[in-house]
Amino acid sequence: MQLTPNISLEELTATSTGLANAPTRRERAALLALATHILQPLRDAVGKPVYITSAFRSAAVNRAVGGVPGSQHRSGQAADIHVDGMTSMALARRIVALGLPFDQLIEEFGQWVHVSYGAQHRRQQLTAVRRNGSTRYLDGVG
Ligand SMILES: [Zn+2]
Fold first, then answer.
1. How far does the centroid of ligand 1 lie from the alpha carbon of residue 89, in Å?
2. E strands, the chain, in order
3. Is the pLDDT of residue 142 over 80?
4. Which terminus of the chain has fewer Cβ atoms in its 10 Å neighbourhood, N or C?
5. Where are the domains of the chain?
6. Contact, 76 vs 31, CB < 8 A?
7. What is the DSSP letter of 95?
8. From the CA of 88, how far away is ligand 1's center (Å)?
9. 73 C-alpha vs ligand 1 centroid, how far in Å?
10. What's the 132 CA to ligand 1 centre distance in angstroms?
11. Distance (Å) from CA 28 to ligand 1 centroid
12. Distances (CA, A) of 42 to 60, 87, 103
């Protein structure tokens, strides 16, 4: 089911865990808002596919992938994305420069970008790094 011209519900609910991952009405509404306000405008701006590695996670999927319980992936508000030919830092900076109304933006380990949309509109920007085996979040992207 297409949510926007280039973003489908299937790609926002895909999981490699093999576990059930069906969003409720409310979670689907959050995914639609994320696609409408963040993912589709980003796709239009970069002119290339925005690959979604993880968006919605059911409770079982979130546990299986080690997600934190309050993760915005659980509520359908967040997606982990990458674009071929762009570093994750370049992608994160592009999202900021475009003025997209994200809630939280995290450049994660130089590998992907976590971006969320929700009522909070914090426009929080972080960079996740691994130090001595644990994850630390630094203010800002770049
Ligand atoms: Zn994420």
1. 15
2. 2-4, 7-8, 51-54, 78-82, 104-108, 112-116, 124-131, 134-139
3. no
4. N
5. 2-139
6. yes
7. H
8. 13
9. 6
10. 21
11. 17
12. 30, 15, 15
Calpha distance 13→125 (Å, rounded): 25
Q: Which two tokens stand for residue 79?
A: 């997606």
Asked whether the whole model's pTM tops 0.90, one would answer yes
- Spell out where 55-123 has E strands: 78-82, 104-108, 112-116
CA of 82 to the centre of ligand 1 (A): 11
Rounded distance from Cα 127 to ligand 1 centre (Å): 12
Classify domain 2-139 at the CATH topology level.
Muramoyl-pentapeptide Carboxypeptidase; domain 2 (3.30.1380)
Residue 127 DSSP symbol: E
Note the pLDDT of residue 119. Answer: 86
